[in-house]
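tool_call predict_complex ligand=uridine-5'-diphosphate
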Amino acid sequence: MDISVVVPLYNEAESLPELHAWLKRVMEENRFSYEIIFVNDGSTDTSWQVIEQLARANSEVKGIKFRRNYGKSPALFCGFHRAEGDVVITMDADLQDSPDEIPELRRMIVEDGYDLVSGYKQKRYDPLSKTIPTKLFNATARRVSGIKNLHDFNCGLKAYRRDVVKNIEVYGEMHRYIPYLAKEAGFCKIGEKVVHHQARKYGKTKFGLDRFVNGYLDLLSLWFLSRFGLKPMHVFGLLGTLMFLIGFVAVLVVGFGKLYAMYNGMPYRLVTDSPYFFIALTMMILGTQLFVAGFLGELISRNSNLRNNYQIEKEL
Ligand code: UDP
Ligand code: MG
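tool_result ok
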């Protein structure tokens, strides 16, 4: 099969028939063999009935129905699991992404050899309250992930070589960072294509401003995991040692300072009167705690079933 289209959706009943008809037209014009996997993320409207109707009339339509709303990432995860096409396309169900981009996206994967091609909504039809934070967000994501050529990490329209979606695990709200996940899994040829974007036609957006707070926290987590996920002691141990050293030096200053003064008949004070005493106390406690965190991290990662989960591309 040439293409699997994975569409996560939550309460998008009005858009679905239009989206399906448009996808079908594009696929037939280009003579692609394809499937469309609608992942109904616990919609409370009639989305699932619409999907059932579409599936009855069209053999290429497949559906997954969650019992409750889990979020876009879990929906993508299950869609990826089911996808059989050589190229997997993800797109939003709200008609903001255009199916007309699919042939070119596929060409970039098949002919230009990209592992992942992300859409870039250069001209967006979203409110300013969304576009400005998005710019900042993307700049940070570029820095942290080291994928310098992407302008729009969170674009719903993306194309993947099948290997990519079968070897990454999207979870939580990590759909914003799929290119980063792909890069961490060793799929480095990541490209971008400017895509046409439209204002939402039906329904309303499912994500509020909290997306930016959560987005940054997720980016921090990913950064940490990608660097220290398998060796937590390397970060906690280093920080712990630094703290402990500072504390230790402070102890020496306090202790020897007082002894020196005592034996030389100079006036001296209680150690608790010295600021170094408190620095020493705090730093040594913090240092020890960081070490304990490091050991706990090592215990957890040693027992994790991901500890020896490597991406082996080929074997002879
Ligand atoms: N979506 C989903 N589960 C959710 C929230 C959203 O499957 O919990 C889907 C939604 O139906 C749409 C896509 O994710 O197809 C993108 O959502 P939306 O258009 O609201 O995001 P925006 O375009 O505002 O970034
Ligand atoms: Mg949208």
